[in-house]
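Q: What residues go here?
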């Protein structure tokens, strides 16, 4: 059974998300709301989904050495792909008083494997996104 090795929370501001959209589209926006209104929520969600894994990978990579780089990036990309960024962006735009940023929670898990002569830990990462 897997156990939590460590858990880390990071936050992305609306300005950081807007910058990701600008980098992806090659166009500038005055705010995240303006970008969503101008470019469409689906395009903005795709932009964030494309730009987020390297950012999260850098955060986690800076705080742990137990998960190998290639496996870590693969885990981050897999969990990022599964997220509903359209819904998260909609909450962020529609409820500016309640939600002001993206919350990124990365969990590093360790799982014990017993071999015939020795045992070892296998480490992997899960990532979840929410608005805060």
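A:
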């Amino acid at each position: 059974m897997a156990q939590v090795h460590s858990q880390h929370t990071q936050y992305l501001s609306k300005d950081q998300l807007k910058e990701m959209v600008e980098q992806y589209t090659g166009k500038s926006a005055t705010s995240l709301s303006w970008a969503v209104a101008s470019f469409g929520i689906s395009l903005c969600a795709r932009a964030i989904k494309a730009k987020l894994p390297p950012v999260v990978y850098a955060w986690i990579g800076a705080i742990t050495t137990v998960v190998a780089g290639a496996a870590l990036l693969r885990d981050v990309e897999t969990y990022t792909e599964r997220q509903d960024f359209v819904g998260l962006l909609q909450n962020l735009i529609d409820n500016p008083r309640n939600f002001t940023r993206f919350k990124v929670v990365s969990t590093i898990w360790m799982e014990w494997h017993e071999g015939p002569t020795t045992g070892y830990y296998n480490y992997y990462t899960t990532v979840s996104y929410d608005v805060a």
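A: Context that may help when evaluating the design: The two ends are 31 Å apart (CA to CA). The first helix runs from residue 14 to 25.
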